[in-house]
Amino acid sequence: MGRWAIARHLSAADERFGPRLGAGLDGTHVAAVTFALLLLLVRASWAPLRRLDTGAAEAFNRIDALSRR
After folding, report:
1. DSSP characters for 35-61?
2. Domain boundaries, the chain
3. What DSSP element (H or E) covers 25?
4. What's the pLDDT at 7?
5. Burial class of 41 by CB neighbour count within 10 A (0 to 12, 13 to 18, 19+)
6. Where is average pLDDT lowest: 3-7, 11-15, 20-24, 38-42?
7. What is the reported pLDDT for 19?
8. Which tens digits make up the pLDDT trace of 16-61?
9. Whole-angstrom Cα distance, residue 46 to residue 52?
10. H/E element, 63
11. Whole-model pTM above 0.85?
12. DSSP one-letter code for 11
């Protein structure tokens, strides 16, 4: 059975599924690369990321302190 035999049996739903699957896989790859880059920056103690983390922690501590009053 050749490739043409398989293509002949594709429905309209099958044809729409291909691009959606491709987009999902592309999104997964983008998320994986973004996560890997962020992990490398955290491991390297990148200063702007450290300042962001410290600032967020201080903000949450202020919010917590205000809620305990």
Report:
1. HHHHHHHHHTT-HHHHHHHHHHHHHHH
2. 3-67
3. helix 12-43
4. 56
5. middle
6. 3-7
7. 81
8. 777 888 888 999 999 999 999 999 999 999 999 999 999 999 999 9
9. 10
10. helix 47-67
11. no
12. -
Question: Which residues touch 42 (CB under 8 Å, ≥6 apart)?
Answer: 49
CA angle 62, 68, 69 (to 5 degrees): 100
Q: How far is CA 44 from CA 16, 47, 48, 69, in A?
A: 43, 9, 11, 38
Quick one: DSSP state of residue 10?
-
Structure-block tokens of residue 21? 């699957």
Which are the contacts of 49, defined by CB distance < 8 A and separation ≥ 6?
41, 42
